Amino acid sequence: MSLLECKEITRIFDPGTAAIKALSDVSMSVEEGEFVAIVGRSGSGKSTLLNVLGMLDAPDEGEVLFNGTDVRKMSEKEKSALRNKSFGYVFQSFFLEPEYTVYENVEMPLVIAGVKASERKERTKELIELVGLSERTDQKTKKLSGGEKQRTCIARALACKPAIVLADEPCGNLDSANSAEIMKLFRVIAEHGSAVLMVTHNEDDAAKADRILYMKDGCLRNEKQ
Ligand SMILES: Nc1ncnc2c1ncn2[C@@H]1O[C@H](COP(=O)(O)OP(=O)(O)O)[C@@H](O)[C@H]1O
Ligand SMILES: [Mg+2]
After folding, report:
1. Which of 24, 62, 99, 200 could join 218 in a cystine, given CB atoms 3.0 to 4.6 angstroms apart?
2. Residue 20 in contact with ligand 1 by CB distance below 6 A
């Protein structure tokens, strides 16, 4: 049984004019602690797939399974709990609270989860250290560099010890040196036991993963086409 799996997923957007088939019969799986990259050009369907796998969007056909359970069989409440507890989300454009410090941003999911203060403090510090930002702990995130912002997002995504981190173009706004640091961090995260599923248009970044899948025109393949 895989940690996260989808079977024959189809997603069609119908903006009124011509329907767009963003995903066509996509099947894939991610195992526990694995670092997987999906690479493909802009518009190939990567974000659509990640949103479906992350339960932020529902497919038109096919099924998504988390630890063997069909997501469609879960109530809204169960899905919401799973999103908060088992998934960590990392996006290209960060979505940090700019006026809050690194500490406050990383701590936020733990506050929402109702973790008690002493435990929260310990966990937050540990996460900030893991991503190498201890010296920036009390800095407002609007003052950080792009690489530091993304590392803050990753620490925040890890707060509730997710089973899997889903990253959509995490290095889209970063230079190659910072991107390489983020890839190293994903490797460390996978070694710590959270799987990482990253989608990217950048083949150099994807090459750092344990396994690469290729997306083209809504279809997913094991080999580059
Ligand atoms: N909400 C939406 N409404 C209409 N079309 C969409 C929507 N989201 C994505 N698409 C279309 O689906 C295709 C795949 O998009 P996307 O998954 O964002 O690709 P990628 O992330 O690889 O750049 C594109 O043709 C895009 O324009
Ligand atoms: Mg995208």
Report:
1. 24
2. yes
Domain CATH for 115: 3.40.50.300
Domain that holds residue 179: 4-221
pLDDT at position 7 is 98
Q: How many structural domains does the chain have?
A: 1
Q: Are 213 and 39 in contact (CB under 8 A)?
A: yes
Q: What separation in Å is there between the alpha carbon of 43 and the centre of ligand 1? A: 6
121 C-alpha to ligand 2 centroid (Å): 34
Strands 87-91 and 69-70: unpaired
Q: What is the pLDDT of residues 200-220, one digit of tens each?
A: 999 999 999 999 999 999 999
pTM greater than the 0.85 cutoff:
yes
Q: What share of the chain is helix, strand, coil (3-state, %, to 5)?
A: 40, 25, 35
